[in-house]
Amino acid sequence: MEEIDINVIGSVKNGEYQINLVDWSDVVSTIEFKIKFADYLVHLDDYSHVIVVGWLHLIPSELRNRAQTYPNGDAELSLQGSLALRGGARPNPISVTVCKLIDLQENELVLRGLDLVDGTPILDIKPYIPFYDSEVNARLPVWTGG
Hints:
The protein is mainly β and 146 residues long. It is built from one helix and eight strands. It has a domain at 10-57 and 93-131: Beta Barrel (Elongation Factor Tu (Ef-tu), domain 3).
């Protein structure tokens, strides 16, 4: 399979344009969905958190071919494969973020902590369910502080 068909279902509105912002925890964003997706959102506000899947549209195409880099650009840390990091320089610049759901009104979802800039295309939303989405005994590399 060489190609897949993915549709943009909405976009981020938050007035943030700095892609290297370090702390997104207090950023309030609205995802405005295409009106035809309003029915897809019914009862999503029964959850406190959601998982947002976005397309990092500002990642330059040459970075999509970068196989390795240093975590946070810090050459004092060991070189890592692009798929061993969470940054956008990867073959498919897809982001996955767990966010606090603040409000849902028709085709607009208001979130806190979404780490995406204004205009980012949204590919999917899923409810966050701790039983499925959290691993208590997950292992992390030393450089992450884990």
